[in-house]
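Question (not urgent): is this output format expected?
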Amino acid sequence: MNVRGIFGRATRPGRIGRAYGREMATVVRAAGGVVYRAGPGGEIQVAVIHRPVYDDWSLPKGKIRRGEDEEAAALREVMEETGLRCSVERPLVSTEYVDRRGRSKVVSYWMMRPIDGTFRPTGEVDELRWLPLSDAMSLLTYQRDRTLLGLVEGRSRNGT
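Got this back:
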């Protein structure tokens, strides 16, 4: 399967991270978004969420439902976790890692812009922060999320 990667050329879906060579019977498929907007002064800001159950800072994402395609799942999960209805701009790379239950997890991401909506805290996500890319990378708990934003930051510097 080919997708247009973060650098705008057709590529096989990229992966950041690995499941450390483990053979897993279950692969959890998930999707999410790098939601961005122009901040004061025009710099790019991204939405970063806090999940109180895990006490972590991450990008909005969640599991794909049966019969749901990845892009639809990404839009739904971003809406559920941030309250923002978004438009998809382009696919990014996928991350792959072993989750807390020892399962291989693959998360596909899209660049998204908010159309409308308002964040409201829930039991799943209690805080959303709009941050410049460098601040977001400092706050994010997981290296895989920081690496993903690093790719976005490199692309934004190149104006593509």
